[in-house]
Specification:
The structure is a homodimer of 526-residue chains. Chain A is of the alpha/beta class. Chain A contains 17 helices and 16 strands. Chain A has a 7-stranded mixed beta sheet. Chains A, B: This is 4-aminobutyrate aminotransferase.
Chain lengths: 526, 526
């Protein structure tokens, strides 16, 4: 769950004569430097090793997509987008906006902006679009009487659940429940999911401490009303440096990505963070030193979670399978297995945050499946590509009384209905398999570019299409993203100097070719 | 924003021979005690002072409603509802559920359960349904191409807003923006709205402290990454005892209703609460002592918010116009005006939480309009009846840099489109005026019942249809709610021993008559 793009003022335009005139020569037109904005990308750039491969034998998941990006305006954002954002800015802050979309014209992997520029979208509404723009399956579902009913009669699921809710849960979330987790708590967004999961962890810890079926003491009940101990206990969730788990007060105390996300906001000062492995890529070429780095981090993590005679007890540990906002940082299955062993050893609950990694992009439906844990996590949280949010858990993590982990809506059935449709499409077209296969191709070819332009891009890494690579500095990264966008390819930054790829599940090799061609162009121009 | 109903296990049934056989006599059938479940309510009870009035001259807002409630099963919940909840309980905790709804059959003010029982609904999915079940206007909106587009292409509004978003904001939230507040931050639920508003308040405070256009120091940036001061500052939001502002970690630290909402969850121990006036009702009959009580509370509030040489600075104060979950506690416009003066005097921001009171039920669109403040609040938060959530604010409360108060979706355009439809219906049918007029009638008649059955119900109070009354104890309150439900009227509890009425905006005098008749029946049977 990560949200920050590159820091860039959208209303400051790049011009063709600056960043976007590719200094190299166009293949087949040796004396002409291409103006990338005046013509369709495929014809104006149409060169590369990648575009020639076509991959025309692949089954199309989306019908009616354009053949490639198309940039029409001399500056990005173009004049209409600029005006549109300026107008919106009178009501809401738009400084983070990089684009204003024309959703009528967007389709599949392609997003169109207000100026008619068409981009191949590898960022996809911050990694949250699963099936592409204007998915036919989702449109059909939107028109169904069930969807209309749930849209106009939004239930308070905790007090007045509707007759079909259990069936919807079974057809959606429960049909892909991680092994060992038979319950689902439905929520509204990634931050709320993580925070309600933390609440469950705290209540479980206190319940065990006072005896599983014991009454809550009057002292606990009276002191909590004043935000004081022992009723409001000094307990902690542990997280990792570089981890991102949301932006509300509890989740933000477990987020450790960028200072601007955290500064000025009161935090739980005893909620500790432990270093996450800082590995070298490609992983298989640096096994010995990576093993050492993981062992170092595990030792520190164990030290922090070990019960102490004084200090704040660690109730749960939250971890992303791949740190996303923090810079696409990976760790080995062995690391996670040993981390799980440590949580078991020290009575700490393990929460796996699959808000960004879940629902297929890594080539597994849940990224943590690849760890082959001997004991499943206690809680797995989700949002984004499922459109719906929430967390899976063991039955023991229910509270001892109703209303304790509760809110008005308790999730949203329309998003659960969409999750059901998304799952149906994923299964029908083996979109998880597609992410694995397309990702393998993408990684191989990106590695080739990495080797071809040493010192330009580095540390190509990823699972499935959930990939990233580094640039030397934050500035060169920001420039790379801008240049890709000018070539009609939308990506996002993560960490201090990485670019992350978060394409949809319908991203295929033919789309990868266009992306790879653009990357090579930018590398050449660097 | 309040969510707790009466504590009651839904699967434990009441039986006709117990709670629901009304001991009094049926008017016109002097020798027969009515069996309330076997026949339509209107014919089986059909007696009272109220039902005879009919109010047939009123324009109907909803077509196709039944003429009254209808209870078919001998126990509530009935066997199908029991089985349905039991089935759902294998996946999710259902202990708070009082009903399982059949939304196909529900219409307008009437909700139908799985056993075919029809209830007049005065609780309305925890005060969140604005136009009634299966509203034709909302169904038409759900079928619109704009709604379908926004449903299937859910945008990350902060980075890729769509072309029609500004227009949607203008047609929805901004068309009813509270005086003086020109900006709207869109969110997903009441808790998130309040928490992002708190974040804005903290950032604004720190910005002013360091100089409005000054840079953030490196010390602040580095320490916040460890959840330590000065970057993670010791600052507080002040709230009121009995206030409810949400259930996530920041909002829960400002919630002071029931201990079970708060116990076992770490809290910000320096976020103080001040007593809210404990007034006597009816307000106009106890003016002198109520004035004194308000003055007492204002003095304590001022003492807490006054800047001190040490201790945690109070950055903002959050207050509900009517404490809802806390027991429908009122205060006078003068109290709020003086509170506003105090916040201005001591440099504390004023956040008005209109999550439950907003969007018409009190007879004003925003409940705080009735205060006639000389200076508007700094922030007004909303959710529930708007379906969409968020907060209005002054432009100065924007952060100094993008991404600081941010998340993936930043609200939801489909809910904003619904808000637009809701507003259209409110204006077309003057539903705020209807709430005022129906509420005045309801209050007058409830007061008559209160006087007729002294010691049974008391403290009838409210604005518009946002009403409540007290029972002597929590137990008698819970029993009263259960008996009303058995008579086909769905209400909810609040505070220790109150019943709150949260009907829809399409609740009319004819519905009030049915409710009043049921209340009188239960009073008679007490």
């Amino acid at each position: 769950m990560a949200q920050r793009l590159i820091l860039r003022l959208p209303l400051k335009s790049a011009t063709t004569t600056n960043a976007f005139r590719v200094p190299g020569r166009v293949a087949g037109h040796p004396n002409r430097a291409p103006l990338l904005f005046s013509r369709p990308f495929a014809t104006s750039v149409g060169t590369g090793d990648y575009l020639s491969r076509k991959h025309s034998d692949q089954k199309d998941f989306v019908h009616g997509e354009p053949s490639g990006p198309k940039i029409l305006t001399g500056t990005i954002p173009g004049p209409k987008t600029k005006a549109g954002l300026q107008n919106l800015d009178s009501l809401q802050d738009t400084r983070a906006a990089t684009m204003m979309t024309d959703l009528d014209k967007s389709i599949g992997n392609y997003v169109v902006d207000l100026d008619g520029n068409t981009y191949l979208d590898l960022f996809c509404q911050i990694a949250s679009l699963p099936l592409g723009y204007n998915s036919k399956a989702l449109i059909d579902a939107a028109k169904s009487s069930e969807m209309i009913q749930m849209l106009v009669n939004r239930p308070a699921l905790g007090v007045q659940p509707h007759s079909t809710w259990a069936k919807t849960l079974e057809d959606s979330f429960m049909s892909v429940a991680p092994k060992g987790l038979t319950q689902v708590f439905t929520a509204m967004c990634g931050s709320c999911s993580n925070e309600t999961a933390y609440k469950a962890a705290f209540m479980y810890y206190q319940r065990n401490k006072r005896g599983f079926n014991s009454e809550i003491s009057n002292e606990d009940l009276s002191t909590c009303m004043k935000n004081s101990g022992p009723g409001s206990p000094d307990l902690a969730i542990m997280s990792f440096e570089g981890g991102f788990h949301g932006r509300l007060f509890g989740s933000l105390s477990t987020t450790h990505t960028k200072a601007l996300h955290k500064v000025d906001i009161p935090a739980f000062s005893n909620w500790v963070a432990s270093p996450f492995p800082n590995l070298k890529y490609p992983l298989d070429k640096h096994q010995a030193e990576n093993d050492k780095e993981e062992a170092r981090c595990l030792a520190i993590a164990e030290d922090k979670m070990r019960p102490k005679s004084s200090g704040t007890p660690i109730v749960a540990l939250i971890v992303e399978p791949i740190q996303s906002e923090g810079g696409d940082n990976h760790a080995s299955p062995k690391f996670f297995q040993e981390l799980r062993n440590l949580t078991k050893k020290h009575g700490v609950l393990m929460i796996v945050d699959e808000v960004q990694t879940g629902v297929g992009p890594t080539g597994d439906f849940w990224a943590h499946e690849a760890w082959n844990l001997t004991t499943p996590p206690d809680i797995v949280t989700f949002s984004k590509k499922f459109q719906a949010a929430g967390w899976y858990h063991r039955p023991e993590l229910r509270t001892n009384a109703p209303y304790r982990n509760f809110n008005t809506w308790m999730g949203d059935p329309i998003r659960a209905l969409q999750a059901k449709t998304i799952l149906h499409e994923i299964k029908k077209n083996d979109l998880v398999g597609n992410a694995k296969e397309t990702g393998a191709y993408l990684k191989k070819e990106l590695s080739t570019i990495e080797n071809k332009y040493p010192g330009t891009i580095s540390a190509v890494r990823g699972r499935g299409t959930f990939m990233a690579f580094d640039l030397p500095t934050p500035e060169t990264r920001d420039k790379f993203v801008t240049k890709l966008r000018a070539l009609g390819v939308n990506t996002g930054g993560c960490g201090p100097h990485s670019i992350r790829l978060r394409p949809m599940l319908v991203f295929q090799k033919k789309h990868a070719d266009i992306f790879l061609d653009a990357v090579e162009k930018v590398c050449k121009s660097a």
